[in-house]
């Protein structure tokens, strides 16, 4: 198995928050991304934060489009890394929470 020790270490970082300091930092950063994503999603629906378009309909501002792209990028990279280092790829794909993660992306 190519880079088995490194893959196992990365898998532990992503799957066990108590495995190391890096894992704890990753959980905190990921949680902050989730909270920020939810907050931006809510704020983007508030009329005061929507730009007026030429047709008179409100549209999301450029800021919300950029933040959404950043969040989708983060969640996609996180999912792909977890998949690539997973010891059991099929089990990873059919696990309920991983299916929810994929649908959320």
Summarize the structure in words.
It is a single chain. A two-stranded antiparallel ribbon has the order 1-2. It is mainly alpha-helical. The chain is built from five helices and two strands.
- Helix run count: 5
Q: What is the 3D form?
A: elongated
Q: Which stretches are low in confidence, meaning pLDDT under 50 for 5 or more residues running?
A: none
Q: Averaging pLDDT over every residue, what do you get?
A: 89
Helix content range of the residues, please?
Answer: over 70%
Instruction: Tell me the strand order in the biggest sheet.
Output: 1-2
What characterizes the major β-sheet?
2 strands, antiparallel
Q: How do the SSEs run, as a string of H and E?
A: HHEEHHH
Structural class, please? mainly alpha
Q: What is the distance, rounded to the nearest whole angstrom, between the alpha carbons of the first and last residues?
A: 29 Å
Work out the strand percent: 5-15%
Rg over alpha carbons: 18 Å
Give me the count of strands.
Answer: 2
